[in-house]
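Obj: model holo form, ligand = magnesium ion.
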Amino acid sequence: MDEFASIRHWTSGRQSESWQRERGVRLGIGDDAALIDPAAPIAGVGSPYEYIMAMDTMVETVHFNEVTMSYEDIGYKALAANVSDIAAMGGVPLQALISVSVPRQLGPEPMRRLYDGLYACAEQYGVAIIGGDTTSSPQHLVVAVTVTGAVEAGQALRRSGARPGDAVVLTGPVGMSAAGLHFLLAQRERGADALAGERVGQLVQAHRRPSPSVRAGRLLLARGTCHSLNDVSDGLASEAWEIAEASGLVVTLKEQQLPRSGSMAAYAGAAGIDPLEWMLYGGEDYVLLGTIEQNDAEAAQAAFHKEGLPFYIIGETSAGDPAVELLRSTDRGDLRQPLAKRGYNHFE
Ligand SMILES: Nc1ncnc2c1ncn2[C@@H]1O[C@H](COP(=O)(O)OP(=O)(O)OP(=O)(O)O)[C@@H](O)[C@H]1O
Ligand SMILES: Cc1ncc(C[n+]2csc(CCOP(=O)(O)O)c2C)c(N)n1
Ligand SMILES: [Mg+2]
Ligand SMILES: [Mg+2]
Ligand SMILES: [Mg+2]
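Output (holo structure tokens):
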């Protein structure tokens, strides 16, 4: 199958013109470029709105390998990671462009499966796939996604808006993806062993199929009390540092209040690893970390729970030079431990 037949094989008949039109698309896959109506009414978003644009890339051996992810998972997660950046601005995702660099020996079927996963995620979050690019790759598979979204003009939630005295909040558990990855990699090295007895299904799912917090981002924006927001890709500590530096303040995380999934903690125990390491530094959680006016934090939590969405109040901000600290309760009283600006870093 040549390049053009391959693209048709992966993409044709997946999304109808009318479905794409509702997302502002005037011309999708097939010409030199796509055409977007910059002022199309978007369901659920007040106008005037602003466009949001972001991109994230996944590289074989860096973000996935043959034991950690199926082709369907790679496609799903590549788009989900991008949708998460739109959620982190308080927006709704609209369209995506997909670039794939494919090892010559791969053949069309694995890529078809990758697109099955990609379109499954697109349907889940209402994203129109409007084009992309295809090249061969000398060795590894690379998937780069550009995503657009919309947010009410002037309302986007930035990393830089946190104020001293805010509550620090999180829209889901952290550390599960890193635990799932640990299991998958350990399994490769040692074969299915004793660790497999733990409840690892949820952890593997968290690693392979993250659920970006789009509804949570919209709820936070609508409250009008959320001052800053970021999504957790590189790890909780790293993202907290980004808010601390962008906003010029201290972020204090309370160890007791960090959401600790039971299956993650059980697996960490069996693997002899401190679960806090995964929770703070693991990454790929794709939940939202934000700050919100202290006097609205509990009401926000109640509103989230009413919608069936998780919401954790995990700390507070204070005036001071940018820093992140962990408040731990010990026998000898409270301990403030500075947290390193550490997390997943491609160049370390
Ligand atoms: N190669 C690049 N050229 C120009 N801008 C870039 C480049 N890489 C990243 N950026 C910009 O830097 C900022 C931070 O990007 P970064 O990728 O660190 O955030 P993120 O996507 O939220 O995190 P992650 O990639 O870990 O999911 C964004 O504004 C992004 O557009
Ligand atoms: C095989 C394999 N080894 C390691 C990891 C861990 N990992 C890779 S990239 C990243 C941060 C987010 O990426 P980015 O900063 O590019 O958004 C993390 C935690 C993995 N997923 N697969
Ligand atoms: Mg990025
Ligand atoms: Mg991000
Ligand atoms: Mg990202």
